[in-house]
Amino acid sequence: MDPMVSIIMPTYNSSRYITQSIESVRRQTYLHWELLITDDCSQDNTRELIKQFQQIDSRIKLFTSKVNGGAGCARNNSIAEAKGRFIAFLDSDDMWAPKKLELQIEFMKANKIGLSYTAYQKIDSQGNSQGIITPPKQTTYSKLLYGNVIGCLTAIYDTAIVGKKYMPTIRKRQDMGLWLDILKDIPHAEGLSDVLASYRHDSGMTKNKFKILKWQWAFYRDVLKFDIFQSSYYFFFYAFNGFFKNKK
């Protein structure tokens, strides 16, 4: 039997898009998966929608946070419950291509890869393509410090190689923190050029660029504990490169 993939999905007031996200998981050609959803105290009907899916698919599991702790805490709760060898990530407004798991797991097994990622497309609220993000074929701990090239919705890690790893319990940049933690233990992560996921892009993000930069600065200083000189060095490259990702 194929190894199990545990899919980690945090939710918070996700009723608008979560049905599409879950359906994209259920359409996977790779069948041996579990979808672990931790709801972070939603106030809409998110949990009701998830329970409807549970009635028709026993692979879907729902957990509820006692307090709103943010996406990182919700993901960590699901990781703790995960039984799969492979840990994959999908947010509740994003989607996967049907062969996403099949192609990526085959790639990881054949090449003994501890952490992998893929290309993905950005989409608007209506699902229209807004461009392709093509990551480098390979990245390392030192390279990732300059900017996060691993889309969270595309990432999978192999617990048989790196063990079970968790995200730092911060409100932003949790995924980058996890990838760096994994890359301390393996030489590199590897990417597929196939476009295997769709990231729902906030068209209003431009006005929030200063907030993003603030979070990234805090990540270097408070999470990685870099001094002012290290932080300034990497922050400069992040600010320069972070909004000009390679597109097809």
Automatic annotation (TrEMBL):
Residue intervals of the Glycosyltransferase 2-like domain: 6-129
Q: Which InterPro entries match?
A: Glyco_trans_2-like, Nucleotide-diphossugar_trans
Source organism superkingdom:
Bacteria
Endoplasmic reticulum as a keyword? no
**Transmembrane parts of this sequence:** none
**Which keywords does the record carry?**
Glycosyltransferase, Transferase
Q: What is its EC number?
A: 2.4.-.-
GO molecular function annotations of the record: glycosyltransferase activity
Alphabetical list of SUPFAM superfamilies matching this protein: Nucleotide-diphospho-sugar transferases (SSF53448)
Q: Does the keyword Glycoprotein apply?
A: no
Task: Show the PANTHER family listed in the entry.
Answer: GLYCOSYLTRANSFERASE, UDP-GLCNAC:BETAGAL BETA-1,3-N-ACETYLGLUCOSAMINYLTRANSFERASE-LIKE PROTEIN 1
What is this protein identified as? Glycosyltransferase family 2 protein
Instruction: Write down the species.
Output: Pseudoalteromonas distincta
